[in-house]
Amino acid sequence: MPGMGPDYAISLSGPRTVALYREAMRQIPGAWHRTAAGAGLVGSDGSIHPTIFAEMSALAARTGAINLGQGFPDEDGPSEVLEVARAAIANGVNQYPPGRGIPDLRASIAEHQQRFYGLRLDPERDVIVTAGATEALAAALLALLGEPDDEIVVLEPFYDSYAAVAALAGARLVTVPLRWPDFRPDLDDLRAAVTDRTRVILVNDPHNPTGAMLDDEIRDEIVRLADRHDAVIVTDEVYEHLVFDRPHVPIATRPGAWERTLTISSGGKTFSTTGWKIGWISGPAPLVDAVLAVKQFLTYVNGSPFQPAIATGLRLDDAFFSGIAGALRTKRDLLGAGLRTAGFEVSTPAGSYFTVADARPLGVTDAAAFCRALPERAGVVAIPLTAFVTPGRRPDYATLVRFAACKRVDVLEEAASRLSALG
Ligand SMILES: Cc1ncc(COP(=O)(O)O)c(C=O)c1O
Question: What domains appear along the chain, each with residue ranges and CATH number?
């Protein structure tokens, strides 16, 4: 690799070595440049920096701070689900599963969509299993975008993979702002964002990082706009069962939506198995097949022993699903109360792992600097909302911070007590 001589091997910390490393990266051609740039990971000097999640998790590990930054649970999910995976490995379910996913998992996804939402899927044609929601998103966007001038509309702030994959696919990202404190999209902003150039409207509901949920007026406007401009709606519903006040409503259930909607979810959040990466995408067969055309060359398949386990999870009784929502609601309330006591203003989330708080009452003007100092100051890690927005929009979110509530109650209590030192 040009510029990477023996110097590179000596140390990555010396200024000369860092300069060589940056120069070597700059000289590597390819689509990774626009992917990293799309995700906001390119510095003003052209160097690539890690995501804020990697930076903050490293900070948590170094300082011993409580990590309320990254959204993964610190407790195992249902034992009957884990047990099926153990037994599958022991019983030789260790080779490639079918390209669309094992039939029983596809059947259980179809049953789940019928049971919770009244949607009727053909498990043979309308659903494929993916390597987490992340692969489903990447395959869908790469499949549907790519002509010159293609645009994708997303709600902003957004989960970080959206902008990265949109850039990889060569599409222009058009954003609809969600504003503090209720984070509801404005109908006129939506109407202005969707045009004949829009190929995809990507909707995350319940929403990361804000915890907001859409309502039928917004859903129906999205369907109307997609219909008028011939766009495909892609939904990210990974928090579908982590809702606190009202049931989740997939856009695909709304009138006129099914034929132009791809619905994505995964087992990671629902069953506390984020490391298993079993996700799925469903919708009308032609759209699903377009996604499959790309997906089969990304991972081909994944996670054979985990697929029957997630099928078992999706068939658990109603008490399980209401139980996980209730448990997370208690944690949301605990975290929210702790943040208020510490002096933050809090936007109460309707769903998801996350709570957004405004640090302005604490005298904060730059949440990124505040989050970098928080582990030393209070022993807690959180993520500034600017990590989820495009550069031009950062000033609007400058004092907002995302905290994850998906941790044990004693961990949240300890975090709340540490944060109270800020007040
Ligand atoms: C909104 C959203 N979509 C997708 C994902 C990733 O899902 P998976 O782990 O199934 O790829 C996450 C994980 O944090 C998320 O928050």
Answer: 52-76+319-422 (3.90.1150.10), 79-317 (3.40.640.10)
